[in-house]
Structures are given as C-alpha cells and as structure tokens.
Amino acid sequence: MSEAGPILELAIGLAREAGAIQRDRYGTELDIQTKQSSIDLVTEVDRACEALIVEGIEDARPGDSILAEEGSGREQAGADLRWVIDPLDGTTNFAHAYPRFCVSIGVERRGEPWIGVVYDPLLDELYQAVRSEGARMNGRAIAVSTEDDLSRAFLCTGFAYDVRRSQQDNIAEFASFLKAARALRRDGSAALDLCYVAAGRFDGFWEFKLSPWDVAAGCLIVEEAGGLTSDVAGGQAHWGGRSVVASNGVLHDAMLGVLKGHR
Q: Please, what is the angle between helix 212-224 and helix 190-198, to 10°?
C-alpha cells in the first residue's frame, strides 16, 4: 500500500457513509434553510453528513486540519494534512429531489493537492485520485476525452449564488460558449462536473466564484485523468477556488480564448 493508502481508504469510507445518509433522505421532507442568499441553501442532511465526516477524521487523525463548508472543521497549527470537505455538493438539487449531488473530500499535503474523492450515492459512482497515481471511477482507470474541436465540445458550467446582484454573472460567457460549442449543461454540482471532465463525459468546464471545497477533489481528479486545470486567465488553478477552467487539455486554449473576450 502506498503512503496515501490509509488516508485514501479513510476518505472513501467516510464519503460512502455520508452518501448513504443522502441516499436514505433523498426525496423525503427536509428542513431547508438559506445562508448568504435566498438561493444558497442548506439542509439538515448537509450538516449531518459534515458531522459524520469531521468526527470520522478527528477520531482517526486528530492532528490534521479540516476545512468544511458548513464550518465545523478546525485548523491545526503545523499540520501536514488539511482535509477540504463539501459534505453535500449540489444542495439545491438535493432539496428539489434532482438527482445530481455528491460528497466531495480533498486532502492537501503541505499545501499541495494530494488526494481527491468524490462519491455520487445515487449512481454509486466513486471517483478517486492520488497525486501521480492516476484517477479511477469504481476502481477502473479513467481518462479525459480526446475531442480537439470546440465546435464539437460538450461543456458544462455553473452560476454563483450572487448571480442576481453581481455584474460577473457568467451569462455573457455562457452565451458565447453556447454559440461556440456543440452543447452546454448546467447541472449544479461543480465536483461532479469536474469528475465528468475527468471521465471524458464532458470535454470542459468553467465557473466563477467557487470555494475550496467545490474544487478540492475534482481538480486533482481531472489532472490525474490527463486533463488541465487553470483559472480563467490561464494561471494555476488552486484550492482557493475562485475561477476554474478544466478541460481535456486539447481544448484548453480555445476555452480560455472565449473567456478572454469577456475579461
């Protein structure tokens, strides 16, 4: 077993346990609340999944730092590892019983992406990657697509929670890609969108104003599947989120070219 093995096993186990909660509560009556805007939702399932994951990490690895979307993590001075957790990516979908949501767990080592796990509990698809060891879905190696023509590309994106009030709303960019690509989708889970790029289902993805937990696992999985990630200016994508472009690599410059027209 590699050095990453025990950490990966812990992440996979916790992702599956949290996914089981989501599967059990899918389509049931929920306590739906809002956070920073009326379209930024949280449910008791988000909180239950986060509690399960955080408690599992604290029990197994009490010296590690944890960054979790709903705020129950904690920083540990001098920790080599930091876990970056989205306990339920796609909460709005989940709240409306739309079947596109997942658990996302990333682990960084000394500030660098190291391990990524994303679990879709309804399709029972588990994506995983370890730096320099490739990416897998349900144990099978995955790879990005080979599409080299933007006009034939199948792309995806998302819109930030401040879309109603912000001038940077991704609408102009969406319109430009709608004209340039074969088809676009907006499925409401950045972590799954990134995994679909890694698996060759989507040829590319872009989005603005993402948070670390949205991309922590997914960007690593794309890179380990042979793809590229960057910010919208072509600089290094990082776990701080903000803007992210992910592609099969062949289409990356063409996607950045479309985005450059709106900067």
A: 0
Cα torsion angle, 27, 216, 126, 2, sign: negative
Please answer whether residues 183 and 209 qualify as being in contact, where contact means their C-beta atoms are separated by less than 8 angstroms.
no
Taking phi first (over 0 means left), then psi (-120 to 50 degrees means alpha), and beta for anything else, what does residue 200 get?
Answer: left
DSSP annotation of 236 reads: B
CA distance 48 to 24: 12
Q: How many CB atoms lie within 10 A of CB 2?
A: 10
Q: Give the residue range(s) of CATH 3.30.540.10 domains in the chain.
A: 5-141
The SS3 call for residue 3 is coil
CATH C-level class of 150-260: alpha beta
- Asked if 226 and 170 touch (Cβ cutoff 8 Å), the reply is no
pTM of the entire predicted model = 0.95
Structural fold of domain 5-141: Fructose-1,6-Bisphosphatase; Chain A, domain 1 (3.30.540)
Report how far Cα 175 is from the mean position of its chain's Cα atoms. Answer: 23
pLDDT band of residue 149 (cuts 50, 70, 90) is very high
pLDDT digits 0-9 by tens, 8-34: 999 999 999 999 999 999 999 998 888
